[in-house]
Amino acid sequence: KNVGYVRDPYFFKFGVHPDGTSRRLAGAIFAIYRIVDGQKLYLDLSPATDLKNKWVASTDALHDDRVNKFVSDKDGLVNTGERFLSAGTYYFEELQSVPGYELDEKSRAIKIEIPDSWLDDDDNYRYVLIDGQPMKENIGGIVTPEMISIGNPRVYNYTDRSSTSSESDPTPPTGQSDQLDKPTGAGATGYLPAMSDWQNLSLVLIGIGLLTLATYFLIKHKKARNHP
Prior knowledge:
Elements: E1 10-16, E2 22-24, E3 29-36, E4 39-43, E5 55-56, E6 70-71, E7 77-79, E8 88-96, E9 110-114, E10 128-130, E11 133-135, H1 145-150, E12 154-158, H2 161-164, H3 195-226
């Protein structure tokens, strides 16, 4: 599959949760870019000519139909699939993350290092490095079930904390009131009696006064009759 020193890189996308567990993420969208004379150029979707790829500048790679996109599958595998890259340094850029996971700066620049030979001077195999991790290859250039099971090299996304935390105030503990205690019973609108309560009290006092006055005159009248 690989011809000369060109290679077709791949990696696995994993999501990490707050409890430390992880899972493979399907549906994350990536592009490949390189820096040429300070300019960021993306791998074009058009077929390569003589194993030479075309590169294009773009201000919106996600929605640019010219840019070649790579999507993680159910195993989290992001595979370039015969889009061979010659020796040099490139980058995977995550254009769109899986919902619920953060898209951080590291995910926008996942380094790809492709050596200029298969073996070094001591006949040791020279691996393609993805984010500094060696990428295993076989003669056919196929990502085998065993390689998928191992799931290396890996790139991680972390859960989006803003989507798991509530912006509203915490719910008060059970039994705790969110209002100040207020007096109950008569005059419950405040600590002093209401106006209607004052009126009722005045009528009662007047009634008591009249009754007392009537009793006084009645007693005085009886005394006057008993002492002519």
